[in-house]
């Protein structure tokens, strides 16, 4: 291998080794692999870059008999590419700056804000979950859908909703089947129960889980983490109170693709919780009123398999309308 490394440097003076989805290695083997690679590339102009998921990664191991791997801050620098909804405003700011750089690289001039109508940008931020690649994918799908609609001249909320659903159906579901460390059906049962709770029962896109219940059910807590890893859920607060109880809660947001399309109407409509807004006493009032989801002792009775999202009765569906002043124009974003 040292011979291979030296040979590579003859071709290119600097060598980059990139490892994707590092978390697929057994967690007990990860520090061993990194230790081997660091020894292999020592005293050479080789750079190692690897991507992983934080809570499913163990880079360093040390005990009385062995020291192996890489220490963050000493041997390796971590870079968090995603943003968390624990600070919604920072996500919004980050994605606006990210959008600006994308447009600059693509040679797109002008005020991009004029492309979005009403709450479309806000919905795109929610649909991204703070993940740049999801932001790009949902945006691209929304543009593709809009270009097929003669009545669309701008990106509207309904396009973001449909794009989020398509991204869930075409990409996220497949990722779950392919990448899950657990049986996909185990996660699908929990996801189905959570969606039914949010969409059919409580009609809110945010829910709270008692911290005490999670501490006593580590297997379910791990499943929740994996659903967050696959971006079906987004954790928005890890320790929040709720009026009327002394218990503490973790707060989660259901992914937009799981509830916003096709949109229900009237009393069946899912209400979006403004979880980032603070009241007069600087409390997260709306978040603190979100419904409480209690963990089940057994999820095996819940139907497994792919979670299909059904449309409402077509007779209840609104006709395609547009309030645009420029309805006669074609949707055209030249990217």
Explain what the structure shows.
The chain has two domains: 2-69, no CATH class; 86-316, no CATH class. The strands form three sheets. Strands 5-7-6 form a three-stranded antiparallel beta sheet. 25% of the residues are buried. It has helices at residues 2-11, 27-40, 88-106, 120-128, 132-147, 157-179, 184-202, 211-215, 218-229, 285-288, and strands at 15-19, 46-50, 60-62, 67-69, 206-210, 233-242, 245-254. The longest helix is centred in the middle third of the chain and has 23 residues, at 157-179. It is an alpha+beta fold and 335 residues long. Helix 4 (120-128) packs across helix 5, helix 5 (132-147) packs across helix 6 (157-179) and helix 7 (184-202) crosses helix 9. A hairpin with a 2-residue loop joins strand 6 (233-242) and strand 7. The model is unreliable at 313-331 (pLDDT under 50). It starts with a helix and ends in a 47-residue tail after the last helix.
Outline the secondary-structure elements.
Layout: H1 2-11, E1 15-19, H2 27-40, E2 46-50, E3 60-62, E4 67-69, H3 88-106, H4 120-128, H5 132-147, H6 157-179, H7 184-202, E5 206-210, H8 211-215, H9 218-229, E6 233-242, E7 245-254, H10 285-288
Parallel strand pairs: 1-2
Antiparallel strand pairs: 3-4, 5-7, 6-7
Helix pairs in contact: 4-5, 4-6, 5-6, 7-9
Mean pLDDT over all positions: 85
SS element count, helices:
10
Shape: globular
- Quote the distance from N terminus to C terminus: 44 Å
The radius of gyration is: 23 Å
Main β sheet profile: 3 strands, antiparallel
In N-to-C order, the SSE pattern is: HEHEEEHHHHHEHHEEH
Count of domain modules:
2
Structural class of the secondary structure composition? alpha+beta
Unreliable stretches = 313-331
Relative strand content = 5-15%
User: What fraction, in percent, of the residue positions are helical?
Assistant: 25-40%
Strand order across the largest sheet = 5-7-6
The strand count comes to: 7
């Amino acid at each position: 291998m040292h011979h291979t490394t030296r040979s590579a440097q003859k071709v290119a003076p600097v060598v980059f080794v990139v490892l994707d989805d590092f978390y697929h290695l057994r967690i007990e083997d990860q520090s061993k692999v990194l230790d081997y690679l660091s020894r292999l590339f020592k005293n050479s102009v080789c750079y190692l870059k690897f991507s992983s998921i934080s809570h499913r990664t163990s880079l360093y191991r040390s005990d009385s008999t062995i020291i192996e791997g890489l220490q963050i801050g000493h041997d390796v620098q971590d870079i968090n590419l995603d943003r968390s909804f624990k600070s919604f405003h920072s996500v919004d700011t980050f994605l606006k700056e990210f959008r600006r750089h994308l447009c600059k690289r693509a040679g797109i001039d002008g005020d991009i804000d004029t492309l979005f109508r009403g709450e479309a940008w806000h919905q795109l931020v929610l649909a991204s979950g703070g993940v740049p690649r999801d932001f790009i994918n949902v945006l691209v799908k929304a543009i593709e859908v809009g270009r097929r609609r003669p009545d669309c001249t701008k990106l509207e909320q309904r396009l973001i909703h449909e794009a989020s659903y398509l991204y869930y159906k075409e990409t996220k579901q497949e990722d779950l089947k392919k990448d899950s460390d657990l049986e996909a059906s185990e996660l699908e049962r929990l996801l189905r129960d959570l969606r039914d709770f949010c969409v059919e029962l409580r009609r809110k896109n945010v829910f709270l889980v008692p911290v005490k219940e999670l501490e006593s059910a580590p297997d379910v807590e791990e499943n929740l983490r994996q659903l967050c890893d696959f971006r079906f859920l987004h954790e928005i607060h890890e320790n929040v109170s709720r009026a009327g109880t002394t218990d503490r809660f973790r707060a989660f947001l259901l992914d937009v693709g799981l509830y916003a399309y096709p949109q229900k109407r009237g009393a069946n409509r899912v209400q979006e919780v403004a979880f980032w807004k603070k009241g007069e006493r600087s409390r997260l009032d709306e978040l603190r009123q979100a419904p409480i989801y209690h963990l089940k002792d057994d999820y095996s009775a819940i139907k497994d398999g792919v979670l299909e999202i059904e449309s409402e009765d077509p007779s209840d569906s609104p006709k395609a309308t547009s309030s645009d002043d420029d309805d006669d124009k074609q949707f055209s974003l030249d990217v």
